[in-house]
């Protein structure tokens, strides 16, 4: 069982425990998220992971065609796509993930509240190249088990932290890609400053992803100075997809 949780986080995790398993034959190769970020880092290119989400608990709402969005992001140099599959709170679907995976040749992150191996089986089958593992909702043992399980498919998870305690657990678990999320999961407030403070504490042999609340080229430059290797951006690009051209 995942950690003790309350409120919407408890509900989202309870739902995740009962998500159906999708059985299908994966038809695309793995486009490694780890290698994609590393490659951009080595070439000193800005690594953007563009997120497809249509709503969220903080009140975000956008209507946009998933395939058009994914193609535009790929054509404009995004190194990856983060696709929300959580349905109740984020309006996501496995169908969007499968359709996007059938369309693009860049890395795809299944963005969900992953707490079971069955969800990782499904991510792989649908064509995802990585899964999100959120430290806040998992025990350290569960995190280690799910990391190992994802790697058995050659999927390297993005392990998300919100504070220094989470970071310690992520490092103990052997995570290789660490995402620092500026959104507080309880209050839903954004605080980019938290990300800037935690980034320098992440060892340099990890790949570091800044997540949430990035709204300009200046934010990216600031986060780079603090050590970020990649940037996960949803709201800005879902509202104005053409902005990707200004970010790279
Ligand atoms: O996006 C939300 O409002 C949200 C609310 C509660 C928990 C998580 C939430 N978002 C998850 C994410 O990680 C973001 O969608 C992602 O980092 C992109 O953030 P943004 O660019 O701020 O949309």
UniProtKB/TrEMBL annotation:
- Cite the Gene3D superfamilies for this sequence: Aldolase class I (3.20.20.70)
Pfam families linked: IGPS (PF00218)
Q: Keywords on this record?
A: Amino-acid biosynthesis, Aromatic amino acid biosynthesis, Decarboxylase, Lyase, Tryptophan biosynthesis
Q: Does the keyword S-adenosyl-L-methionine apply?
A: no
What domain of life? Archaea
Keyword Signal applies: no
Gene Ontology biological process: L-tryptophan biosynthetic process
Indole-3-glycerol phosphate synthase domain mapped to chain residues: 3-242
Q: What is its EC number?
A: 4.1.1.48
Question: So what does this thing catalyse?
Answer: 1-(2-carboxyphenylamino)-1-deoxy-D-ribulose 5-phosphate + H(+) = (1S,2R)-1-C-(indol-3-yl)glycerol 3-phosphate + CO2 + H2O
Pathway-wise, it operates in: Amino-acid biosynthesis; L-tryptophan biosynthesis; L-tryptophan from chorismate: step 4/5
One annotated GO molecular function:
indole-3-glycerol-phosphate synthase activity
The text of the family note is: Belongs to the TrpC family.
| HAMAP family xref list | IGPS_A
Please state what the protein is called. Indole-3-glycerol phosphate synthase
UniProt lineage:
Archaea, Thermoproteota, Thermoprotei, Sulfolobales, Sulfolobaceae
């Amino acid at each position: 069982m995942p950690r003790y949780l309350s409120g919407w986080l408890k509900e989202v995790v309870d739902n995740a425990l009962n998500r159906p398993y999708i059985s299908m034959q994966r038809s695309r190769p793995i486009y490694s998220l780890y290698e994609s970020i590393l490659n951009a880092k080595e070439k000193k290119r800005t690594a953007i992971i563009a997120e497809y989400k249509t709503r969220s608990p903080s009140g975000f709402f956008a209507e946009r065609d998933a395939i058009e969005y994914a193609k535009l992001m790929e054509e404009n140099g995004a190194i990856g796509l983060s696709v929300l599959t959580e349905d109740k709170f984020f309006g996501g679907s496995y169908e969007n993930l499968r359709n996007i995976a059938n369309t693009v040749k860049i890395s795809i992150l299944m963005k969900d509240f992953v707490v079971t191996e069955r969800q990782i089986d499904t991510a792989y089958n649908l064509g995802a190249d990585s899964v999100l593992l959120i430290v806040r909702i998992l025990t350290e043992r569960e995190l280690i088990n799910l990391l190992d399980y994802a790697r058995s498919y050659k999927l390297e998870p993005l392990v998300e932290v919100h504070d220094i305690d989470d970071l310690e657990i992520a490092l103990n678990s052997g995570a290789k890609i660490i995402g620092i999320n500026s959104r507080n999961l309880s209050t839903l407030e954004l605080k980019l400053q938290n990300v800037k403070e935690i980034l320098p504490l992440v060892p340099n042999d990890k790949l570091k992803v800044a997540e949430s609340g990035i709204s300009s080229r200046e934010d990216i430059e600031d986060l780079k100075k603090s050590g970020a290797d990649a940037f996960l951006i949803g709201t800005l690009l879902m509202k104005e997809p053409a902005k990707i051209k200004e970010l790279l």
